[in-house]
């Protein structure tokens, strides 16, 4: 099987690996790097669970090959914070009960991170529009919107 050398900066650290050209970015992150915070749901671009940031913009990791990220910067949910040191968005999700099973949460957090960067004072409509590509089967979305709204409020 032929492989190709890639160098991807993941959460600030350069990762050099020989990968098969068919390896998905989502499988590279989870399987090769062990960053299992990036979830895989539908594997065809519908659910948003696999959302990561690529050079600062949110992308579906299941719709990209790892070789396409060669030379790029990738940020996963592991970059946001950790237990005991949640970032403000994670803390707000916690405080507003914005998750139940948590399967959609990494994708929601990364999408919201991108959204809040582009729309620091996002309105409710902008928040809902921004989340429209991420599916949640548990929460009904209201608590997720409330969590993001609270972060915006902190900024005003
Ligand atoms: S797993 Fe990538 S969009 Fe669903
Ligand atoms: S919290 Fe279960 S899918 Fe969103």
Q: How would you describe what is shown here?
A:
This protein has helices at 25-32, 88-95, 105-118, 124-130, 142-154; strands at residues 4-10, 13-19, 51-54, 57-60, 73-75. It is of the alpha+beta class and 156 residues long. The chain is elongated. Residues 40-43, 45-50, 60, 62 line the site of one FE2/S2 (inorganic) cluster.
- Compute the CA-based radius of gyration: 16 Å
| End-to-end gap | 55 Å
| Overall pLDDT metric | 97
Class by SSE composition: alpha+beta
Overall helicity: 25-40%
Per DSSP, the total helix count is 5
The run of helices and strands is EEHEEEHHHH
> Largest sheet, if any?
5 strands, mixed
Q: Catalogue the ligands.
A: FE2/S2 (inorganic) cluster
Instruction: Estimate the global geometry from the Cα principal axes.
Output: elongated
Compact description:
By secondary structure, the protein is α+β, with helices and mostly antiparallel strands. The chain has 5 helices and 5 strands, in the order E-E-H-E-E-E-H-H-H-H.
């Amino acid at each position: 099987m032929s492989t190709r050398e890639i160098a991807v900066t993941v959460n600030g650290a350069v990762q050099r690996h020989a990968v098969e050209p068919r390896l998905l970015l989502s499988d590279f992150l989870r399987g090769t790097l062990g960053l299992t915070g990036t979830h895989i749901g539908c594997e065809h671009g519908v659910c948003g669970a696999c959302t990561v940031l690529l050079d600062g913009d949110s992308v579906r990791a299941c719709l990209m090959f790892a070789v396409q990220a060669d030379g790029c910067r990738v940020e996963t949910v592991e970059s946001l914070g950790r237990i005991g040191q949640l970032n403000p968005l994670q803390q707000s999700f916690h405080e507003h009960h914005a998750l139940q099973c948590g399967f959609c949460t990494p994708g929601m957090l990364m999408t919201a991170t991108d959204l809040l960067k582009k729309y620091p004072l996002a309105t409710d409509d902008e928040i809902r529009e921004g989340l429209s590509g991420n599916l949640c089967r548990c929460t009904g979305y209201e608590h997720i919107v409330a969590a993001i709204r609270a972060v915006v409020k902190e900024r005003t």
